[in-house]
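hiii so um. not sure if this is the right channel but i have a protein structure encoded as tokens and i wanna go backwards to a sequence. like what aa goes where. can anyone help
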């Protein structure tokens, strides 16, 4: 969920689930992912009558997996398409660096 605090700046919080299987032994794994990010929307780069908006994002968050918390920082860029004033779809690419040495690239859409 995102809350706009200025015309071109938003803050978002997210919570999600991780459902996977371990490759080594096929055990199922459940975990949580959590994020708090700031988004910047450069006003001069809007396209399609202001409906397609590129953005930059950065923040911190982490994962809870296998009874361990991993915390880190992330940064990325994306595109948001406004369906209406309250509904949008977006795609983004994000680099996630966990403080305990993990470094992931994440592509997502929502």
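sure thing!! here u go:
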């Amino acid at each position: 969920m995102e809350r706009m605090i200025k015309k071109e700046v938003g803050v978002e919080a997210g919570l999600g689930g991780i459902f996977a299987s371990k490759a080594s032994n096929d055990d199922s794994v459940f975990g949580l992912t959590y994020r708090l990010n700031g988004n910047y929307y450069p006003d001069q780069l809007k396209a399609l009558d202001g409906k397609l908006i590129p953005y930059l994002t950065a923040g911190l968050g982490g994962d809870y997996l296998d009874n361990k918390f991993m915390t880190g920082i992330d940064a990325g860029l994306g595109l948001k398409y406004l369906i209406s004033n309250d509904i949008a779809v977006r795609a983004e690419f994000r680099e996630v660096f966990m403080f305990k040495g993990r470094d992931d690239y994440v592509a997502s859409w929502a």
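oh and Strands lie at 2-6, 9-21, 28-40, 52-65, 68-82, 88-98, 103-109.
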